[in-house]
Amino acid sequence: MKNFTLKSILACAVMAATAMTADAQRVTFQKNSDVSNKIYETHRTVPLWADFNNDGLMDVYYGGTSAKYGWTVGGYLIKNLGDLNIETVTEYKKETVEVTNPETGEVTTQERIVGMANGLPYTANGMGSLTFDFNQDGLVDFIFTDRGGNNSGEPKGLTLVKNLGNYQFEIINDEALASLNWGGDESSFNEDQEVGCLSIGDYNKDGYPDLAVTGTGNNGRFVKLLKNVNGERFEFAPVFKPLAYDVEINKL
Question: What's CA 34's distance to the chain center, in Å?
């Protein structure tokens, strides 16, 4: 009797799962709005979805290089206004930056666009970038795996951006993150990008999200765990012991 009951339950579960799968396969999507005139086409980027102003609606930020206008690097914040209405923010800011000629080494000063007027940086090749609440203030912050590009004068590498509220942001100059920044030819991207992977989690259960980073720096490949210190800064947690490059891992 017990076996019969168990078999009956399993059979019912299988039939229910089959029915649910069939229903799932019948789901269709319909294009409700054409926003092509409000969204700029780019590549070398991924969109970052989050509710940046805590109004209950998901907004989007993405960077990358233009798909239509050469290799122009940009940054675009799309505000979700609700009811399938959006507003794309593109205002930028300029600063005087030092630009090094990769062939001659000559350093000149030029006025360049360095980011968005709201404080978000321009980003290219930041495919591993993530959103998280760095300081646990209830606002979504950013960690970018790359920024600048196309000789914008911006340094490549990990960039922490704090959400100030009302769609305003601030780049946080973090010493630990800056030490991982790659300092070579700014015209190089894919092969020379220092960050390979970025993951977020609270490894020590103190309520603040920490970072695990792998990549390539000035001294070769690295694996680093960065501890979040009270939502104020990061410091290296010495939990990984790197192997020498001549060690054959399969013979350990």
Answer: 26
